[in-house]
């Protein structure tokens, strides 16, 4: 292939990938900003609150990374079906992915229920344990909503439509910031809940994002031909197993990559509230920087599909 031929093709691919990537990057940045806002509110409330949210967030990510990584395979599968003109198969695939997402969300809920009593055995400083436990017990209720949201998000991204990722990401931020501040600090007649209030606000945000995405998919004409919600379809275990077989290795890989940050937070939590709080402030900067290549990588996956 000549240089004259390859240069326009390269420019075309860069432009197409950039259009896909920009909303994804901004959507991921909004996710990072959600953690940032959580930390600002927690730090404003008390150092111990910030430390509790740090440990709670680390343990929240532990069961969250596997579902996110497992379900992300839906993006590639949908993109391939879309590119091959086999869009009739996308609706049935999506409905089975919803069952998988619901199951993963329930596992996430169970994990966040079982782990908090074990925090003292991890060596977490005693002044952090009550707040971290309260945060996890509150945020666990958003687990099923979170996995369902990512399932719907990955479907949309697989169809080369990434704008909802950005809009719902920043929409969640607009919900979390005022609600988290009010509940954590006991404003507008609410009791002062500290870290627990931030957990409640996060769970509410997760459900609102999931409901908003489901409403969009239900009513939008863009995906009407896919018949995503045309009828109820029970779980088909072979289809779910195929999704797991493709996605679970990705989920485990994502867990291994993110596990370092989780383990680091838990180790620093053994030192005390001040150290855990300082660590969380520093890690937020690294997290925001990581969101940019992550968004570009997802856009590349869609284009390859």
From TrEMBL:
InterPro entries: MATE_fam (IPR002528), MATE_MdtK (IPR050222). The chain crosses the membrane at residues 51-76, 97-119, 163-183, 198-219, 246-269. This is MATE family efflux transporter. It comes from Acinetobacter seifertii. GO terms for cellular component: plasma membrane. One of its GO terms (molecular function) is xenobiotic transmembrane transporter activity. It comes from the Bacteria. Keywords: Membrane, Transmembrane, Transmembrane helix, Transport.
């Amino acid at each position: 292939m000549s240089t004259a031929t390859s240069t326009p093709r390269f420019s075309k691919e860069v432009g197409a990938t950039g259009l896909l990537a920009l909303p994804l990057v901004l959507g991921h940045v909004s996710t990072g900003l959600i953690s940032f806002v959580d930390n600002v509110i927690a730090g404003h409330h008390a150092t111990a609150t910030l430390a509790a949210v740090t440990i709670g967030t680390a343990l929240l990510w532990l069961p969250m990374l596997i579902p996110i990584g497992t379900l992300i395979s839906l993006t590639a599968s949908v993109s391939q079906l879309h590119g091959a003109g086999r869009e009739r198969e996308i609706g049935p695939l999506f409905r089975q992915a919803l069952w998988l997402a619901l199951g993963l969300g329930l596992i996430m809920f169970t994990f966040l229920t079982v782990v908090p009593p074990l925090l003292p055995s991890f060596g977490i400083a005693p002044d952090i344990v009550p707040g971290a436990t309260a945060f996890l017990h509150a945020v666990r209720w958003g687990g099923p909503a979170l996995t369902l949201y990512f399932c719907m998000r990955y479907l949309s991204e697989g169809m080369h439509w990434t704008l909802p990722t950005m809009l719902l990401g920043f929409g969640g931020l607009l919900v979390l910031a005022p609600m988290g501040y009010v509940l954590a600090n006991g404003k507008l007649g609410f009791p002062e809940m500290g870290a627990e209030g931030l957990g409640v606000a996060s769970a509410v945000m997760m459900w609102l994002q999931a409901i908003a995405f489901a409403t969009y998919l239900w009513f939008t004409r863009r995906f009407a031909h896919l018949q995503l919600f045309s009828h109820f379809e029970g779980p088909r275990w072979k289809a779910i197993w195929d999704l797991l077989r493709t996605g679970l290795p990705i989920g485990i890989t994502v867990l291994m990559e993110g596990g370092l940050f989780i383990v680091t937070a838990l180790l620093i939590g053994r030192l005390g509230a001040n150290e855990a709080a300082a660590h969380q402030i520093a890690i937020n900067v690294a997290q925001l920087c990581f969101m940019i290549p992550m968004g570009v990588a997802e856009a590349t996956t869609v284009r390859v599909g």
